[in-house]
């Protein structure tokens, strides 16, 4: 008689890990490795990094997964190295070389071209992307040699600065809105310079208010004697939103999903703007809410009772 397989019991782990994703690993594989270290029951990431890219990959555990969407919407900052003079079919180092050209550009020409890409721009998503057409990712069509028409999307380049230029390598710092493809930006800059380009390296250094200086590597995580101490609290994802502190009685009503007229509550300080806020009672995060007209606090996403 075969012995029944014992189901592994996972732990309830809440928090955010700021992982320094290594090159060559998919975001999902990185998540699986971190989840195994924590033996966590529930986990998710906040938007993928390509396997060839490195840097900040916020991983959410437990209650933090309820707020991961906020980081999908957040601005991102990258350091990237653009290899001028060489075009590949993927726009990065993982593709096949399509064309090689001589590179003969000056820093003055680079400065003029970079200025064109600051602010709102239109970007055509690459074929090698996870965007879907008829339920099938574009990269699957690309691998079959099929090129489909893609509509340009509006994105915003908040910052595009030259870090260094040692031909043929152009190192840039880029801050951009959600949905921006840095691979496409590098290719477009190369095209504007008349020599073509692909990304040689890409490192993400900021997501919303989360910064690279607080990252840990998988090696550090695996070797740590108390890995749970490396987790940031759930509200690390929400630091850009104003805080509202409720009395215990109001907190009870809030967690029941009730809308609260805060203008009638002298014990509560109401932020001076409408929109999303993070809500606390006795210093404990209760969730997020929308602060509406007439100081109405409408519950949005709630933390499960501890």
Overall CATH class of the largest domain: Alpha Beta
CATH architecture of the largest domain: 2-Layer Sandwich
Instruction: State the fourth-level CATH superfamily of the largest domain.
Output: Pseudouridine synthase
**Strand tally:** 18
Characterize the overall form. Answer: globular
The tally of helices reads 7
The separation of the N and C termini measures 42 Å
Descriptive account of the structure:
The chain is an alpha+beta fold and 306 residues long. The protein folds into 3 domains: 15-74 and 210-237, Pseudouridine synthase; 76-207, 2-Layer Sandwich (Pseudouridine synthase), CATH 3.30.2350; 241-302, PUA domain (Archaeosine Trna-guanine Transglycosylase, Chain: A, domain 4), CATH 2.30.130. The protein has 7 helices and 18 strands. The chain has helices spanning 27-38, 68-72, 107-116, 138-143, 182-192, 218-223, 248-255; strands spanning 15-21, 43-45, 54-61, 76-84, 86-88, 97-100, 119-123, 132-133, 136-137, 153-166, 169-176, 197-207, 210-211, 243-245, 260-261, 275-281, 284-292, 296-302. The strands form 4 sheets. Strands 1, 2, 3, 4, 7, 10, 11, 12 and 13 form a 9-stranded mixed β-sheet that branches. The protein has a 5-stranded mixed β-sheet with strand order 14-16-17-18-15, covered by helices on one side. A two-stranded antiparallel sheet has the order 5-6. The longest helix is centred in the first third of the chain and has 12 residues, at 27-38. The radius of gyration is 23 Å and the shape is globular.
């Amino acid at each position: 008689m075969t012995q029944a397989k014992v189901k592994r019991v996972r732990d309830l782990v809440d928090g955010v890990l700021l992982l320094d994703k290594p090159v060559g690993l998919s975001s999902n594989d990185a998540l699986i490795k971190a989840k195994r270290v924590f033996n966590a029951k529930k986990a998710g990431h906040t938007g993928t990094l390509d396997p060839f890219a490195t840097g900040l990959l916020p991983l959410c555990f437990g209650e933090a997964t309820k707020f991961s969407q906020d980081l999908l919407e957040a601005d991102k900052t990258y350091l990237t190295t653009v290899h001028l003079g060489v075009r590949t079919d993927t726009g990065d180092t993982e593709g096949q070389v399509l064309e090689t050209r001589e590179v003969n550009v000056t820093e003055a020409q680079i400065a003029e071209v970079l200025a064109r890409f600051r602010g709102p721009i239109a970007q055509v998503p690459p074929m090698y992307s996870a965007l879907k057409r008829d339920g099938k990712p574009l990269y699957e069509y690309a691998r079959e040699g099929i090129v489909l028409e893609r509509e340009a999307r509006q994105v915003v380049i908040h910052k595009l600065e030259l870090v260094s230029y040692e031909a043929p390598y152009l190192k840039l710092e880029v801050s951009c809105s959600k949905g921006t493809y840095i691979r496409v930006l590098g290719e477009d800059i190369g095209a504007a310079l008349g020599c073509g380009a692909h990304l040689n390296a890409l490192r993400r250094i900021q997501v919303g208010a989360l910064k690279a200086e607080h990252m840990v590597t998988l090696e550090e995580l695996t070797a740590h004697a108390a890995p749970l101490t490396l987790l940031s609290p759930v509200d690390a994802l929400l630091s850009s939103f104003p805080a509202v502190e409720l009395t215990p009685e109001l907190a009870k009503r809030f967690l029941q999903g009730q809308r609260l007229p805060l203008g009638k509550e002298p014990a509560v300080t109401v932020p001076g703007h409408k929109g999303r806020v993070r809500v606390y009672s006795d210093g404990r995060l209760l969730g997020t809410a929308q602060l509406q007209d007439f100081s109405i606090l409408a519950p949005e996403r709630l933390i499960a009772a501890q």
